[in-house]
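The methods section describes the discrete structure representation at length, but only in general terms. An entry of this sort, consisting of the sequence and the corresponding backbone structure tokens, reads as follows.
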Amino acid sequence: AVSPAGKSALTEFKMIHSYAGLCSEYQLILHTGRTHQIRVHLSTAGYPIVGDVTYGGKKDHRKEIPTEIRELIQALGRPALHARKLSLNHPLTGEPMTFQAELPTELQQLVRALKEI
């Protein structure tokens, strides 16, 4: 949670694309690594992650979402969150390390469906 008594955490985020005003794709840069940091920060800013039942907000938007999109989101069974690129220093050697991963098939399907709206 965001709290004055909590530990400091910093997340930069920038909208990359909006899909028919239903949801948006963001690029995020984390300067800290707190548990649930991305989910908490985006939800607190008013941009909860699609499929995040814990931090997704209280408003029910399901009536606004086309059936096909709603079914893809439900089939995810998780927040629609993906780390395309992750860079960090090795905890023992301090050596810089970078990992990259393509968008998983289920998220690719969701993006394709959103682009068709």
In short: The CA atoms of residues 6 and 108 lie 35 Å apart.
